């Protein structure tokens, strides 16, 4: 059977997402014809790191992690004849918190079937920002870095650091939404080339035998309108034989499997 996988799905354990029950996510995946689903809730942020978002709701709390694992394991068994369910996490790569992240993975990585390493937080002038929080925060980051181009370079450099970082044997094998810097591109159009950074990122991913999260969430974002990464970059990855894994990045059950057709079209164009 051809594997049809949604490798990036959130849960009711996400404090900034839907309260849809886990079963609803699974039933939607089955309805959409998927035979594999990875729950990748935002992992607890590193010890000592202060969430810069106003409500500090970027990730689940550490004390919720046990319930998260237990809930998915129960459903994994219940649905074993209908769909493969993976226990996963979306791990944040945060500069200066590599040790704390490694310690977390060393403790909990053995419970993971699959996981994603993503960059959401950037350190600018000794202050951390959540770059995809909203357009106002993004504009503030442009001001702090000096230009949109420098902000993009800062982001791509951080993605490169995440790829090359040593986070131990449980480091995630898939790199999340590598072009998240384009989330607000309709408000802040990119008039420069990021090709050098993209090539460096793809080269490093290839060298380390990692995967890329083909994340369709950008299609649902008002100021983005494209997949992370876009078709041009995705085709560059395919030429290098880098695996692309479809991810809905669903924060509600209705978005599981959404816009899978874009991934199918890309796969058929090989």
Entry keywords:
single chain, 270 residues, alpha/beta, TIM Barrel, seven-stranded parallel beta sheet, two-stranded antiparallel ribbon, 8 helices, 9 strands, Pol/histidinol_Pase-like
How would you sum up this structure, described in words?
The protein has 270 residues and is α/β, with parallel strands linked by helices. The protein has one domain: TIM Barrel. The protein is built from eight helices and nine strands. It has a seven-stranded parallel sheet with strand order 1-2-3-4-7-8-9. A two-stranded antiparallel sheet has the order 5-6. Strand 1, helix 1 and strand 2 form a beta-alpha-beta unit. The longest helix is centred in the middle third of the chain and has 17 residues. The model has no long low-confidence stretch (mean pLDDT 96).
Produce the secondary structure layout:
Elements (H helix, E strand, L loop, with lengths): L4 E5 L12 H10 L4 E7 L22 H14 L5 E9 L5 H11 L5 E5 L2 E4 L2 E4 L4 H11 L2 H17 L9 E2 L19 H13 L3 E5 L15 H9 L4 E4 L12 H9 L2
Parallel strand pairs: 1-2, 2-3, 3-4, 4-7, 7-8, 8-9
Antiparallel strand pairs: 5-6
Unreliable runs:
none
Which band does the percent of strand residues land in? 15-25%
Major sheet size, sense and barrel closure: 7 strands, parallel
Could you tell me how far the N terminus lies from the C terminus, measured between alpha carbons in angstroms? Answer: 20 Å
Strand element count: 9
CATH topology: TIM Barrel
Tally of contiguous helical segments = 8
């Amino acid at each position: 059977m051809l594997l049809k996988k949604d490798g990036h799905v959130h849960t009711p354990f996400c404090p900034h997402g839907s309260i849809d029950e886990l079963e609803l996510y699974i039933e939607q995946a089955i309805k959409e014809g998927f035979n594999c689903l990875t729950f990748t809730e935002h992992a607890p942020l590193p010890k000592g790191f202060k969430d810069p978002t106003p409500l500090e709701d970027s990730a689940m709390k550490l004390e919720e992690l046990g319930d998260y694992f237990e809930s998915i394991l129960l459903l994994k068994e219940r649905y074993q004849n209908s769909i493969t369910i993976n226990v996963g996490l979306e791990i944040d790569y945060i500069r200066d918190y590599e040790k704390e992240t490694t310690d977390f993975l060393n403790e909990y990585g053995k419970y993971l079937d699959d996981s994603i390493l993503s960059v959401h937080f950037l350190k600018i002038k000794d202050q951390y920002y959540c770059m995809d929080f909203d357009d106002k925060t993004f504009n503030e980051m442009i001001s702090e870095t000096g230009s949109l181009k420098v902000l993009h370079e800062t982001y791509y450099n951080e993605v490169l650091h995440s790829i090359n970082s040593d986070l131990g044997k449980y480091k995630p094998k898939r790199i999340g939404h590598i072009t998240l810097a384009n989330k607000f591109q309709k408000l802040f159009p990119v008039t420069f080339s990021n090709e050098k950074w993209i090539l460096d990122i793809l080269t490093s991913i290839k060298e380390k035998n990692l995967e890329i999260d083909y994340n369709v969430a950008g299609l649902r974002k008002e100021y983005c309108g494209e997949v992370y990464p876009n078709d041009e970059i995705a085709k560059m990855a395919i030429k290098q034989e880098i695996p692309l894994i479809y991810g809905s990045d669903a924060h509600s059950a209705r978005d599981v499997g959404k816009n899978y057709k874009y991934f199918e079209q890309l796969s058929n164009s090989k």
